[in-house]
Amino acid sequence: MQATTGPFFFRVMAPTDLAAVERIEQGSFPTPWSKDAFYREITENNLAFYYVAGCRSEREIIVGYAGIWVILDEVHLMTIAVHPDWRGHGLGEQFLYYVFAEACLKGGQRITLEVRPSNREALALYHRTGFKAAGRRRHYYTDNGEDAVIMWRDLPG
Ligand SMILES: CC(C)(COP(=O)(O)OP(=O)(O)OC[C@H]1O[C@@H](n2cnc3c(N)ncnc32)[C@H](O)[C@@H]1OP(=O)(O)O)[C@@H](O)C(=O)NCCC(=O)NCCS
């Protein structure tokens, strides 16, 4: 499904998006995934579905991406990132609702994720989009030993 809201569009990630995805990844995470890791996800993993958020102004640019795994009716939000220059304007929220719709189309009934307790922007986004904290995974993040907050949200079906 392709969706458009204002100047933004959302669609399935293609191999040609990976250079832009890798640049955003490197500006977003302390232990970034490689382009090859994304390539394997979108070409070899039958459970995985990845999407990009783009902006059409003078030309089309990729400004974010997200990925889910769908395991029967449970969906795991594997990643979401917005380019640092485009954060704080509600794009993450619009994009997440697009991902929820995609997850529903694939039969998902609930969606879960892990997030660092120190990631205030992400926590704000997840609370605003209906996720509730449901526990912790101790020392989940290998770079600094930080716990992960586990969150869940029902999907509308
Ligand atoms: C988490 C992330 C995807 C949110 O994307 P976004 O487009 O900024 O999302 P939104 O604008 O919808 O919401 C961001 C929240 O951070 C707040 N915020 C404040 N200043 C901000 C800033 N300078 N930059 C980003 N967010 C800011 C926003 O106001 C909003 O909080 P609110 O609900 O209290 O208003 C983005 O910050 C990101 O890519 N972070 C790095 C990767 C990451 O941590 N991903 C999540 C892993 S669990």
Quick gist of this model?
The chain has 157 residues and is α+β, with helices and mostly antiparallel strands. 27% of the residues lie in helices and 36% in strands. An eight-stranded mixed β-sheet has the order 1-2-3-4-5-6-8-7, with helices on both faces.
The overall number of domains is: 1
How large is the share of residues in beta strands?
A: 35-45%
Count of DSSP H/I helices: 4
- Topology as a string of helices (H) and strands (E): EEHHEEEHEHEE
CATH 4th-level superfamily: Gcn5-related N-acetyltransferase (GNAT)
Largest sheet: 8 strands, mixed
Mind telling me the C-alpha Rg? 15 Å
**CATH C-level:** Alpha Beta
Here the CATH topology equals Aminopeptidase
Overview of the structural elements:
- The chain is α+β, with helices and mostly antiparallel strands.
- The protein has one domain: Aminopeptidase, CATH 3.40.630.
- Helices cover 27% and strands 36% of the residues.
- It contains 4 helices and 8 strands; from the N terminus they run ββααβββαβαββ.
- Strands 1-2-3-4-5-6-8-7 form an 8-stranded mixed sheet, sandwiched between helices.
- Strand 4 and strand 5 form a beta hairpin.
- The chain is globular.
- The protein starts with a strand and ends with a strand.
- The mean pLDDT is 95.
- Coenzyme A binds next to strand 5, helix 3 and helix 4.
